[in-house]
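Lecture 7 notes: from sequence to structure.
We start with the chain below.
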Amino acid sequence: MDRTDGTLSTPDGPGGTTRGGASTGQPIRVAIVDDHELVRSGIRNALGLSDDIVVTGEAGDGLAALDLLARSPVDVLLLDLHMPRMDGFACLDAVASRYPDVRVVVLTVDEDPEVVATVIRRGAAAYVPKFVRPGDLAALVRQVVSGAVVVGGPILTGAVSGAQPPEAPPKEPHGLTQRELEVLKLVAQGKSNAEIARELFVTPKTVKYHLTGIFSKLGVHNRTEAAAHALSHGLVHAGSMEDKKPSDR
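Predicted structure tokens for the same chain:
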């Protein structure tokens, strides 16, 4: 059962800090961080088929994950991005700072290249879509423990040991990335987050993530101000502002 702070009890108490894996003969210790219990259960069951991997703990948000890491050594952290209290981005930053030996695998529904570049640049060892086959998950865990950087999963794109994190997408003179500019143009057309997500083949949460960056870079506070700024600075054409309709935030 989940504790009230979002952390699940760990089957093993705090142990040594030596990383598990084939080279040590010790099982690889994995923690699962996702706010959906059904997802955690599925991942736990998939990894439970491997004798060399043990799930030592689970958490329902980033803060609970940090509490878990403080109490029980972990080799690999499977991390969702969109969670309450502390999301995966903030948790990733904290783990990279406090627990640099922990290999973080971002396991999410987002496939936006810009988000991929961001999490790898911020210290993730892998970025894998949640539709990865259960049988491939254990292989991925072994790869990241060996030092590989994985983007897309071992079956989709392979892993290259010692690979350099991908560079961030180039920014335009106005400070927005190409994807942020695409989102801004659709906002100016009056499209809702759900409509933008469908058009760009991302999730609504990813759209909100981009909007946060857009607002910050343009120095605006809402969609209307962002659209007006885009029009006045020539980022969108006047025709893009026509036929605006209510949109969600």
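Points to note: Residues 29 and 54 are 5 Å apart (CA to CA). Residues 204-218 form the longest helix (15 residues).
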